[in-house]
């Protein structure tokens, strides 16, 4: 009931305080947490456990946010806190005047980093959602490089008589060497571990030993060259896990899992107990001004850093960090034993105020672990922050996740935007094509990810089924294959199955494994530079241009062939004209033999060059037209534009079809122009 209110880390520190007080009460000297013991034996198991079982998908999707918090946030905290503490020392009286700027900056770099041990101890108990957990925990893991660089930098600068610009530039470059060098060392040892596990099929007992041995060697190799050992452990755990789990047996996997959990839990317990014992046993120098200022400025720097960085980060994030999330991130910046051990490593010759630094750091650790650690659970419930959902992954979820990844990769390639989905897909293809063949033994190197996940689920559910004590309660997700493997049934006598040899069965399995679940390989990769040109694209462009020209030409022809309107005459003159020649003004009923002008609006000709076709009446040959036909004039035919589904590019010759609409326009009375004389053809022969 007490652990539901007080975090386990607080209870362990209280136990350490009691043990230290008891040892001191009997006249003995309590042991102090030695920095070498802490960094060489207690810290590596916790970091290896965190790196080996790191939720890689959430970590990579939020890597940019984590790096900004870990690098920029830690630098801001270190320099802001160091600068303000230097001002406090200058104004704090004779007891603080001797502390210079470099010593305060060193103190700020030690106390500014969020501690992964304290974060793990508190956040795993409150079951916060995955996003906030990976942001705070990822920051606590990756800020180790910044802390190591600043710590060694200011420690070296304290021995210099004068610090030059070149020293500052080299110190800035050393950050990249420390961080990237640690990652490189971790990747090298991770690959060596995976390659070694390929050949351990005949000695399954020592498989877990290789994982622990190579990981510890990665940490020691990085620390040997003053690189980031934490980054090396994380990199080695992340790199080795997928290949090692594909090679080792299920029993070895279980051994690694539970031994790492047990080892990290023991180390965490010892760290917090030793913190309590060291508080009682250490030499302390209490200065109210320095200690209270340190605690206050730590909180202010953390809140300001989170607010400013989140405002900048939200401009680029799709899932924004809400004010509740920002509060939890700022409130979850716990300090722990790493700061204590780094301060304990300081040399008395150059830092005579080490005892005062240790007192201030222990005060900050106790405040963050006790006050913030005890109140964060009620605050999470009060603010209704989303909790972690304990759900098992399913095949359906895995299929949809891979489908969305594939879809987003295609969309990024089509848009020409090379985002993290694009590079993730490139890395997966390279991994599947080259790396898996070298690091994974047997046919499992060619096994699709979905099939491997299905096999893992089947094994897990089969073990749970056996441990439950029978087949009475069968989970719905367990297939009949796994049930038959657990409790095989005797086949009916009347059913005769063809006997297959082991070689034949293995050959069939190999054929199925090589030919199924390979739809992605058959698809062409999305790339806007290698898209095949559409053969109809040129024709469609020509069709659109012709349609546009047709509309323009039709509009011009309508304007060009419009018959001018007659001048208005008086009714008396109109009746006299009709009475003098009634046949001239009688409407023509027979228009079969009229000369026809065929106009093709899609042709590039101008309105002035109109094709005149069938100008002579039918059946007359070379004879001159009769007066009746001459009086009837010409018929002009406009070519009908094609329907939306067809065009001249694909269906030529539609203008000669009899279904085309004909526009008849009588030009027998062109207005005020003189009439042609009797017997003279409207269009002279020979033109």
From TrEMBL:
Annotated keywords: Antiport, Calmodulin-binding, Cell membrane, Coiled coil, Glycoprotein, Ion transport, Lipoprotein, Membrane, Palmitate, Phosphoprotein, Sodium, Sodium transport, Transmembrane, Transmembrane helix, Transport, Ubl conjugation
Gene3D superfamilies to which the protein is assigned, alphabetical: 6.10.140.1330, 6.10.250.1040, 6.10.250.2020
A family per Pfam: NEXCaM_BD
Molecular function GO labels: calmodulin binding; potassium:proton antiporter activity; sodium:proton antiporter activity
GO cellular component: basolateral plasma membrane
Membrane topology annotation: Multi-pass membrane protein
Subcellular location(s) of the protein: Basolateral cell membrane
Coiled coil (residue ranges): 502-529
GO aspect biological process, one term: regulation of intracellular pH
Catalytic activity: Li(+)(out) + H(+)(in) = Li(+)(in) + H(+)(out); Li(+)(in) + Na(+)(out) = Li(+)(out) + Na(+)(in); Na(+)(in) + H(+)(out) = Na(+)(out) + H(+)(in)
Residue intervals passing through the bilayer: 6-25, 37-54, 66-89, 101-122, 134-154, 166-192, 212-239, 260-282, 288-314, 326-345, 357-380
Keyword set includes Coiled coil: yes
Domain Sodium/hydrogen exchanger regulatory region residues, every copy: 477-562
Region (Disordered): 600-687
Domain Cation/H+ exchanger transmembrane per the UniProt entry, residue ranges: 6-380
Protein name: Sodium/hydrogen exchanger
Taxonomic lineage of the native organism: Eukaryota, Metazoa, Chordata, Craniata, Vertebrata
């Amino acid at each position: 009931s007490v652990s539901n209110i007080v975090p386990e880390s607080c209870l362990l520190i209280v136990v350490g305080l009691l043990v230290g007080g008891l040892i001191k009460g009997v006249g003995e000297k309590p042991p102090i947490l030695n920095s070498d013991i802490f960094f060489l034996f207690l810290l590596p198991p916790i970091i290896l456990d965190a790196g080996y079982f790191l939720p890689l998908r959430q970590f990579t999707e939020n890597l940019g946010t984590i790096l900004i918090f870990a690098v920029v946030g830690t630098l801001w905290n270190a320099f802001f806190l160091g600068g303000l503490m230097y001002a406090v020392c200058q104004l704090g009286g004779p007891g603080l005047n001797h502390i210079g700027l470099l010593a305060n900056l060193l103190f700020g770099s030690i106390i500014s980093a969020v501690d992964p041990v304290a974060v793990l101890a508190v956040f795993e108990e409150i079951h916060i959602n995955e996003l906030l957990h990976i942001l705070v925990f990822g920051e606590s893991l990756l800020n180790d490089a910044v802390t190591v660089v600043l710590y060694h930098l200011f420690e070296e600068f304290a021995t210099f008589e004068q610090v030059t610009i070149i020293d500052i530039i080299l110190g800035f470059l050393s950050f990249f060497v420390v961080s990237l060098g640690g990652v490189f060392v971790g990747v090298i040892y991770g690959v060596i571990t995976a390659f070694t596990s390929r050949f351990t099929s005949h000695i399954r007992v020592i498989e877990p030993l290789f994982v622990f041995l190579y990981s510890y060697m990665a940490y020691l190799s990085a620390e040997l060259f003053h690189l980031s050992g934490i980054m090396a452990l994380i990199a080695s755990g992340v790199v080795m896990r997928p290949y090692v789990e594909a090679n080792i047996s299920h029993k070895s996997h279980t051994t690694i899992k539970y031994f790492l959990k047990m080892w990290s839990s023991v180390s965490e317990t010892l760290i917090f107990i030793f913190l309590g014992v060291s508080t009682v046993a250490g030499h302390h120098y209490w200065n109210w001004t320095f200690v209270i200022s340190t605690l206050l400025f730590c909180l202010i720097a953390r809140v300001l850093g989170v607010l400013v960085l989140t405002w900048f980060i939200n401009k680029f994030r799709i899932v924004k960090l809400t004010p509740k999330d920002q509060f939890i991130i700022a409130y979850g910046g716990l300090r722990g034993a790493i700061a204590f051990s780094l301060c304990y490593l300081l040399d008395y010759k150059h830092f005579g105020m080490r005892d005062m630094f240790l007192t201030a750091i222990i005060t900050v650790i106790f405040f963050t672990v006790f006050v913030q650690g005890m109140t964060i659970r009620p605050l999470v419930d009060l603010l209704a922050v989303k909790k972690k959902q304990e759900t098992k992954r399913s095949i359906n979820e895995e299929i949809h996740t891979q489908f969305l990844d594939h879809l987003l990769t295609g969309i990024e390639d089509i848009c020409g935007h090379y985002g993290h989905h694009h590079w993730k897909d490139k890395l997966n293809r390279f991994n599947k094509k080259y790396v898996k063949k070298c690091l994974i033994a047997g046919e499992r190197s060619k096994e699709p990810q979905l099939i491997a996940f299905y096999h893992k689920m089947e094994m897990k559910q089969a073990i749970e089924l056996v441990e439950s004590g029978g087949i009475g309660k069968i989970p719905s997700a367990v297939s009949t294959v796994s049930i038959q493997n657990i409790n095989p049934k005797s086949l009916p006598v009347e059913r005769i199955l063809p006997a297959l040899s082991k070689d034949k069965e293995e050959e069939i399995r190999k054929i199925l494994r090589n030919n199924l679940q390979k739809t992605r390989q058959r698809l062409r990769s999305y790339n806007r530079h290698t898209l095949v040109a559409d053969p109809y694209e040129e024709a469609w462009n020509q069709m659109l241009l012709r349609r546009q020209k047709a509309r323009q030409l039709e509009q011009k022809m309508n304007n060009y062939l419009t018959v001018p309107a007659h001048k208005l005459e008086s009714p008396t003159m109109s009746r006299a004209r009709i009475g003098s020649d009634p046949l001239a003004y009688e409407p023509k009923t027979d228009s079969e033999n009229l000369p026809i002008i065929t106009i093709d609006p899609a042709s590039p000709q101008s309105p002035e060059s109109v094709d005149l076709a069938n100008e002579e009446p039918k059946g007359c040959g070379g004879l001159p037209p009769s007066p009746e036909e001459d009086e009837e004039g010409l018929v002009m035919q406009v070519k009908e534009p094609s329907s939306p589904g067809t065009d001249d590019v694909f269906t030529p010759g539609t203008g000669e079809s009899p279904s085309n609409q004909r526009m008849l326009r009588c030009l027998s009375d062109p207005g005020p122009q003189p009439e042609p004389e009797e017997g003279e053809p409207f269009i002279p022969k020979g033109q």
